[in-house]
Amino acid sequence: MTNTELDVIAIGNAIVDVVAQADDDFLIKHDLSKGTMTLIDAAMAEKLYDNMGPALEVSGGSAGNSAAGIASLGGKCAFIGKVRNDQLGDIFRHDIQAIGVNFDTPAATDGDPTARCLIFVTPDAQRTMQTYLGACTDLTPADIDPAVIQSGKVTYMEGYLFDPPEAKKAFFTAADYAHQADRLVSLSLSDPFCVDRYRDEFRDLVKGHIDILFANEEEIKSLYQVDHFDDALQHVRKDCKIAALTRGPSGAVIVSGEEVHVVGAAPVEKVVDTTGAGDLFAAGFLYGYTHGYSLADSARIGAASAAEAISHFGARPETPLKTILETFPQA
Amino acid sequence: MTNTELDVIAIGNAIVDVVAQADDDFLIKHDLSKGTMTLIDAAMAEKLYDNMGPALEVSGGSAGNSAAGIASLGGKCAFIGKVRNDQLGDIFRHDIQAIGVNFDTPAATDGDPTARCLIFVTPDAQRTMQTYLGACTDLTPADIDPAVIQSGKVTYMEGYLFDPPEAKKAFFTAADYAHQADRLVSLSLSDPFCVDRYRDEFRDLVKGHIDILFANEEEIKSLYQVDHFDDALQHVRKDCKIAALTRGPSGAVIVSGEEVHVVGAAPVEKVVDTTGAGDLFAAGFLYGYTHGYSLADSARIGAASAAEAISHFGARPETPLKTILETFPQA
Questions:
Q1: Does ipTM exceed 0.95?
Q2: CB-based contact A52 B88, cutoff 8 Å
Q3: Which of A11, A179, A239, B293 could serve as a FRET partner for A108 with CA atoms 20 to 30 Å apart?
Q4: Cβ <8 Å between A54 and B99
Q5: What's the rounded Cα separation, in Å, for the pair B313 and A313?
Q6: Residue among B53, B57, B98 whose CB faces A54 most closely
Q7: CATH number, residue A241
C-alpha cells in the first residue's frame, strides 16, 4: 500500500434519510418494490411524504454511510458529494463531519434542495427506498480535486452515482485521477435495479477498471444475468482483482484470483432495520484492507460493522465501531 | 364531560429535536446542567451543534409530544404552535399530522427559523436539552382560535410557553377561552428551571386556574420551594383540582381533593433515552381522563405510555400506543 494521508476517498450522493415504519399494505398500495431503491421526482416525493407516517431524519447516502463507518472504525476518510445550502444540507454536513470525515465539497447555492431518501421499514426489517436526488444532480467533475483523490489509498464510489449524468462524469474523472497515481478504485453496485439501468457500463468497468468490487447476491447475479450465485462468482473472479460479495444472513464470499474466503455473518440480537448493511460491510472491509488485515479478517470486520448498523434504525453507526477491532489481532 | 369534537387541544413550542449521544465530560466541558432544559440563542446553538456528535432529527416539543401520544392512543387532538416555512418546519408539520393530530397554525413566513432542541443523551439515558426557540417566539394570541379551544374537552399547555413573551399571552388567551366554555385547563410545569423563572405566576395559576396539573418531583418541589415531595404534595392538594405528580422509576401520585392514588412505573426492558417520559405520561393520563377512565387507571395508561417513549431514542411513540389500552377494561 502506498504512503498516503487518507485511507479512503468516498464519493456518492449526499442524501438525508427520512425513515418511517410502514406495513406491507402500504408498499402494495403505493406500488413500491420491497428492498430496492427507486428514483422519484419532486412531485412523487411530496406525495409519498404526505402519506408517510411520522419519520426520523438521519444523514444517509450509500457512500456517505460507508465513510461514516470507516471514520467510526478509526480510519481516515474524505467524502465528496453535493448538498444544497439548506437546512437538510447543513444536517448532512454536520453529521458526516461530526463523525470525523473530511467533507469540503461546496454546497450548491441554487437549484434543487438537498436530496432525501424516503425509507419505509417493514416489520421484517427490510427497507424500501424512494430517492429524490435534488442537489445531487449538481455534482460535476469540477468537484473532484485530483490532490484529494491522490491523497487516499482507495477511491470508493457508489453505483448510484451513475444516476445523475454529471455525477457519472465525476465518477470517471475520479477513477482516472486515482489510477494515474496508482491508487485503487472501488465500486459498490448499490442495487439490482441500478445494475439493470447501467449493466453494460458496469460490466465494462468491472472488467479491468475496478480493483475492489462490492455487490450483494442480487446485484452480482443481475450484473452477469445469471440465476445462480455461484455462476456470478465464477464470472467475477475472472473480471476483477478483488470482489467482496455479501449474502445477508448467509455472510460474504471474497474472491481474489485464486484466493476465496467464505465468512459468516456476525450475530445480531434483533434485526431492526437493514438499511446500511451493505454500506457498513464495505466500510469495515475497506478499513481492514487499508490497514493491512487479511482479506478474510477484512470481511469479518465488515460483517461486524454491518451487524451494528442493522441492530437499530438508521444506517450509520450508533456506537463507535472501533470496539470491533478489539477482537481482531493487530494486522 | 361536555360533548365536544376533540379530546385535547395541546399548545406548545413547535420544536424539532436534534438528538445525539454525549458523555458526561461533554456536559462538563460545555457547562450543561444534566437533565434540564436551557434556552440558548442562535450563536450558542450554532456553537453547540458544531461540537455535537452525529445526530438524528425527530419532531419534538413537550406539548407536541403529548399530542402525538394522545393521537397514538386513538384520541382526538389538535396542536397549536409556531414553525417557520422552512425544511424543519415542514418536518414538524408532517410528523404531527402523520400521527393523526390536527395542526393548522400557519407557519411564519419571515423571522427566525423553526425551533430546535439539541438533546444530549448520556449513557445513563438522561437527556440534557438546549433549546433555540426561533419561530416559537412568533406564536401570538391571534393564533388562538376560540372555536378550536372550545371544541376540546381539555386545553393542555406546557409551562415552556412562558418563555416566549407573546406565547405566554397566547397561553392566557387560550385559558380564558377554555374556561368561558366550561372546558378544562391543564398545565405541565415542564422543568424545574422553568418553574424557577416563573414561580410566582405559576403559583397564581395553579391556585384556582388550573384544573389538571402535571409536574415531576423536582418541579413541584421547586414550585413550593420545599425540600420534601410530601410537603409539595400537601400544598398542591389544596391548590389544584387534580395534580398528577410523576417520580420517574418510582411511579406517580395523583391527588384530587380527598382522592389520592399511588401508581407504579410500568416496566421497561432497557431505558434508552428518558426524553419525553413526562410528555407521554401526560398524554396517557389525559387520554384516560377524557375517556372516562378512573384517575388511577388514567395514571396507569400514562405510565405505560411513558415506558414506551423511554425504551428508544426520541420522545414520540415508535409503536402505536393503542395496544396499551388492551390491558385496561373499557371505561
A1: no
A2: no
A3: A179
A4: yes
A5: 10
A6: B98
A7: 3.40.1190.20
